[in-house]
């Protein structure tokens, strides 16, 4: 299958490689000419055979809107656009309507896997009309992890990004729990090897997880996280999750508290946020701030 892929950053570049390894043709475009296969979006569209499929992996908001607007003018009826970034689900509904007016299909895909996805595969949560989703199955199969799980057609347009938003909200709360436990262990005199306590949890415990494995990786690199500043940004999806909970009268005390904890990290150097920052760097390559000490 042929695919145009726009945005070849940390995830997009690895996705291009994984899809190519599965035997598909991927023509990638990025503003960085060193990684781009073509010079312009128009050239990308010209090199694809109809009906075309173009997957967008750019930052949510204005950047995604700009690309969708340009594709609306370049593509034809019968083509399909996939938004695989972290767009808000309400934007998906808008984009589907704008493109649908020209006969262009739209699918939203929540993608999880971070910088590890090239080798491990990407979990995919997809929203859109069945006929649009079905024609993309070869690409979804190439991207997903091996085995029966890791892909779901979650529902209509917006369902993919809504599901990924909730996934990220849960991720916030899980990271916060590990971070609070780590700080408490570090605070007492009786526990003399916190890193090995975390490592001991990796097998046989009910709290073992990939996030726990990544926490141990971070502690192996910097045992007491002394090189990090206790600051953790939020990408926006935690906020959207809390807003959706308010709109639907669903109580989310753990996720909401974890979001507010990140806000607190911007006021002073939080030990817990050192762990959250380390985990975000481990799974997503997100930037961290170095300690000034």
TrEMBL record:
Residues 160-287 form the 6-phosphogluconate dehydrogenase C-terminal domain. One of its GO terms (molecular function) is oxidoreductase activity. Keywords: Gluconate utilization, Oxidoreductase. Its EC number is 1.1.1.343. It comes from the Bacteria. It is an enzyme of class 1 (oxidoreductase). Belongs to the 6-phosphogluconate dehydrogenase family. NCBIfam families: gnd_rel (TIGR00872), PRK09599.1 (NF007161). PANTHER family: 6-PHOSPHOGLUCONATE DEHYDROGENASE. This is Phosphogluconate dehydrogenase (NAD(+)-dependent, decarboxylating).
């Amino acid at each position: 299958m042929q695919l145009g892929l726009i945005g070849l950053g940390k995830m997009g570049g690895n996705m291009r490689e994984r899809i190519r390894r599965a035997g598909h043709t991927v023509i990638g475009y990025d503003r960085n000419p060193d990684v781009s296969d073509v010079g312009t979006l128009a050239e990308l569209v010209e090199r694809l055979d109809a009906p075309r499929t173009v997957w967008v992996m750019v930052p949510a908001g204005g950047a995604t809107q700009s690309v969708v607007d340009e594709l609306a003018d370049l593509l034809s009826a019968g083509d399909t656009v996939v938004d695989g970034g972290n767009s808000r689900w309400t934007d998906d509904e808008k984009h589907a309507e704008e493109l649908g007016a020209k006969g262009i299909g739209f699918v939203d895909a929540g993608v999880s896997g971070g910088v590890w996805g090239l080798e491990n595969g990407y979990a995919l949560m997809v929203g859109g009309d069945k006929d649009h989703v079905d024609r993309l199955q070869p690409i979804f199969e190439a991207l997903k992890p091996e085995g029966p799980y890791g892909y779901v057609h979650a529902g209509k347009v917006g369902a993919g990004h809504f599901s990924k938003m909730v996934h990220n909200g849960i991720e916030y709360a899980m990271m916060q729990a590990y971070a609070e436990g780590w700080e408490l262990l570090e605070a007492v005199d009786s526990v003399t090897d916190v890193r090995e306590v975390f490592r001991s949890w990796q097998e046989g415990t009910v709290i073992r997880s990939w996030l726990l494995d990544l926490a141990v990786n971070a502690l192996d690199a910097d045992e007491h996280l002394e090189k990090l500043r206790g600051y953790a940004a939020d990408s926006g999806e935690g906020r959207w999750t809390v807003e959706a909970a308010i709109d639907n009268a669903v109580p989310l005390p753990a996720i909401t508290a974890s979001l507010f904890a990140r806000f607190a990290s911007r006021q002073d150097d939080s030990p817990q946020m050192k762990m959250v920052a380390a985990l975000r760097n481990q799974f997503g390559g997100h930037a961290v701030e170095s300690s000034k000490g």
